[in-house]
Design goal:
Length: 237
C-alpha cells in the first residue's frame, strides 16, 4: 500500500492529490492564472489535513516533470524536492504529456473510438509551437516528446492512416489547421494530479525513483526571458 502526494504544476492548472495505491483520496486544484506560488503549499496542507495525514506518513512524493511552463515547473519541482529532503521520502517524476494521455483515456473511456486511434497530447508553447508526442490507445508511446511548429501539413502522414485525437492546451492551434476527417479534438483535458497518481503508484511499485539531489524538470527547451510591454515602453522613453 503506497500513500503518495502528487503535484502537477506544468500548465495553468495547479493540481494536488493525496492518493493511496493510485486512487485519489483528496484533491485540490485551480485554473486561476499564475496562482501556483500562492496556492500550491496551501493545497498540500489542505489535502493532508483533510485525511489527517502527516508528511512522515507518506511513502513518496510525485511531481509532473514537464515539459510545460518554466515557472510552473520550477515551483512544483522545488516544492517536491524540498519535501523529499525534509522528510527523507523518495521522489517520483512523471512526464506531463503522459499525465495528459492518462487523463484523456479516462475521459474517452465511454467514447466509441475507431480502432487504431492515436492520442496526441499538446501543451501550448510559443506562437505556433507545441510540446507534443503520440500514444496508442493502450497508452504506449509511439513518438518521442518534441517541440513542434504546427502548420497545415502537420500530422498528415498519421492522419492519412489513423484517426488522431488531439487534446491539451496546445490543441486550439491545430483545430483550424488540421481540417482532416480523421482529426478529433477533445476539449477540457488537463493534467490532473489524480491521473498523475495512477502513474506514480505504478512507478512506486516498480521502485522507479529519482535522484532527488540531481533531478531537474524536463524543460525540453531553454527558458527565454522576455521584457513585458510596460518595460519596453519605459525603455523607449
Amino acid at each position: 500500500m503506497a500513500l503518495i502526494l502528487n503535484i502537477e504544476t506544468a500548465t495553468p492548472l495547479c493540481s494536488v492529490a493525496l492518493a493511496e495505491n493510485g486512487k485519489a483520496l483528496s484533491m485540490r486544484e485551480t485554473l486561476e492564472d499564475k496562482s501556483h506560488a500562492a496556492r500550491l503549499t496551501v493545497f498540500i496542507q489542505e489535502v493532508l489535513m483533510e485525511k489527517k495525514i502527516k508528511v512522515k506518513d507518506l511513502d513518496a512524493i510525485a511531481v509532473g516533470k514537464g515539459p510545460g511552463s518554466y515557472t510552473g515547473l520550477r515551483i512544483g519541482v522545488s516544492t517536491a524536492k524540498g519535501m523529499c529532503y525534509g522528510s527523507n521520502k523518495p521522489l517520483i517524476a512523471i512526464g506531463t504529456l503522459d499525465i495528459l494521455c492518462k487523463q484523456a483515456l479516462q475521459q474517452l473511456a465511454q467514447t466509441e473510438l475507431k480502432p487504431g486511434t492515436l492520442l496526441c497530447p499538446m501543451l501550448d508553447a510559443r506562437r505556433m509551437e507545441v510540446f507534443t508526442c503520440l500514444f496508442d490507445m493502450e497508452g504506449n508511446s509511439i513518438e518521442p516528446v518534441t517541440a513542434k511548429i504546427i502548420d497545415e501539413h502537420s500530422y498528415r502522414e498519421w492522419l492519412s492512416d489513423h484517426p488522431v485525437a488531439f487534446f491539451g492546451s496546445g490543441m486550439e492551434k491545430c483545430r483550424t489547421l488540421l481540417g482532416h476527417p480523421n482529426a478529433l479534438f477533445v476539449d477540457g483535458v488537463h493534467p490532473h494530479a489524480a491521473s498523475l497518481a495512477i502513474l506514480s503508484g505504478q512507478k512506486y511499485n516498480r521502485g522507479e525513483f529519482e535522484n532527488t539531489a540531481y533531478f531537474e524538470p524536463f524543460y525540453l527547451k531553454d527558458f527565454i526571458a522576455t521584457i513585458p510591454k510596460k518595460g519596453l515602453h519605459s525603455l523607449n522613453k
